[in-house]
Amino acid sequence: MTSILSTGTGALLAYQRAMSTVSGNVANIGTAGYTRQSTQMSTLYTGGVQVQDVVRIADELVNARLLDSTGELARLDKISTLSSQVDTMMSDKTTNLNSVWSNFFDSVSALTSTPSSSSARQAVLDNAKALATRFNQLDAQLDQMDADINASLETGADQVNSLTTQIAKLNGQIANNKNVTSDLLDKRDQLVSQVVTLTGGSIKTLDDNSINLYLPGGQALVVGTLTTKLTTVQDAYQASRLQLGIVSSGQTVVLDNSLIGGSLGGSLEFRSTMLDPTLAEVGRLALATADTVNQAQNSGVDLYGNLGSDLFTIAPPEVLPNSGNSTPGATLQASVSNIGAIDGSNVTLRYGVGGWTAKRADTGAALAVTGTGTAGDPLVVNGVQIVVSGTPANGDSYLLHSSQGAAGTLSVAFNDTSKIAAAKPVQANTGTGNIGNAAVDSLVVNDVANPALQTAVTVQVDGAGNYSTDGGTTWSPYASTNPATISINGWTLTLKGAPSNGDTFTVSATGANSSDNSNLLSMAALDDKNVLNGGTVSINNAIAGLTTRVGSSAQQAEYAYTAQKAIQTTAQSTRDSVSGVNADEEAANLLFYQQAYQAAAQVISTANTTFQTLLSAVQR
């Protein structure tokens, strides 16, 4: 009788505990990260039942896959989000370069029809200012994204350190604790997931049930109850830019961007693969705009009769010293030597025993360097010339921004509309007394810097058909099948037709208030002139190419994120199928345990009735 009662009582308590476990599962059906529990029972040697353990239903491999997917999804989400913002800048007509570029050259083309018109000249200046402002705005917006990334790295590092401290503390409570609760393990898993979302990484579960947490590059953030601090470090060349590092044995070690995943790694990857190249390309376009338009301006004369001055001003390429360089060291000053050779890439310059060497900062590919660095023989690399002042020490290095940041410095140099150089600096005229039919075919300026360019020259013809200038240089007799070409003082005059003895032609400086539009025509043609990439690509096409590349990169980033989202959904579903709470399953379990509980109660009731019957019989 005692055995029946004991067996029933044990079963009643066991199934009560099982129903309590099911109730906990049901109550947490909507709790993120909750791992369902199961009551494990075993048979007693007496034939009864007891609760052996309440266990978490988890698969370490499944959880590891979900963790890996979580970090990758956060990385791709960050890249896609930030790339989309740059794509919007470059594609939206209210913020991109295409519209203001077209407006500027449309106004230049309109001025060719009325080169003396003050209103048309004002339109050119206004559109030049709008173009410069747009370059400034794009540079500022991209710089702000860089600053935002800095802020996110600082905030992220603080969050990671807070989370790893909590994980280490939980490790201390969990390690070798046979009575550890499932809630503590779930909380630790949630903290780990949050860290991995920020940095990527993986865990290793130890025999004592504590874990070690590692970055994707293998650096430990948590080892048992010990933590490694994640911190931000100023870039060696750009103090305003932050990198991530870890503090190990009192030393701060800068982490390579490839060693970090999660949203922080995504921010760093976006900065190096999308933000920096876009900043550099926008800067290259600004440099090319200033260089080509200024050359055109300098090739003409304004309404005052003066040679044209620069329309745009822009800062030269920037050279930044490494913070670890020797002191006082050397100072490097850069300037554009060949706009067609500038590709926008940042260059690392290093001084050593053999002199100067150069590499691309992004890929490490070696670049050719010529020159010694003196003013008379500057260093030349990728279309930039550099003059070295002072004495560098072996191992000193510098970062050359050939174009990055230049767009933020572009501005219009003057407000006087009369300074727009519409006319050619020299003009050719046919002598009024000429009797032959020779005429001016063209007058081309070859060297605007020639000091004698605007010196008046008279070209005359003798009886033998020879041309000479002011009784000086004589050219061969004129051949009717070959137009006469006279080159002197930085210009080339071409005459066609048959001259007569004594005919004259004059080349002289263009005077003030000229209505000539020759130089404007050359400036308007810059819209489609191939000046970049070694003279194979126009600025207009380069702007379109930048928009296309950014859009394509943003689209690829979105595709990658969407694909990873599907992988994440599958990984989460797999985890939920193992560790998640299924309402139908729990309802079935609850019904089963309820019936078993009722049966156990019935056993106790039967044992009690039997006992009472026996007791009554004995009392009689």
Task: Characterize the structure shown.
By secondary structure, the chain is α+β, with helices and mostly antiparallel strands. The protein is built from 9 helices and 28 strands. The protein has helices at residues 2-27, 60-91, 98-113, 118-174, 182-199, 262-298, 518-524, 539-579, 583-619, and strands at residues 37-43, 49-56, 202-205, 211-214, 220-223, 226-227, 229-234, 242-248, 251-254, 312-313, 318-321, 330-336, 347-352, 355-360, 366-367, 379-381, 384-390, 397-401, 411-412, 426-430, 439-445, 457-461, 467-469, 484-488, 491-496, 504-509, 530-532, 537-538. The strands form 9 sheets. It has a 5-stranded antiparallel β-sheet with strand order 11-18-13-14-15, with no helix packed on it. A 4-stranded antiparallel β-sheet has the order 3-4-5-6. Strand 14 (355-360) and strand 15 (366-367) form a beta hairpin. The longest helix is centred in the first third of the chain and has 57 residues, at 118-174. The model has no long low-confidence stretch (mean pLDDT 90).
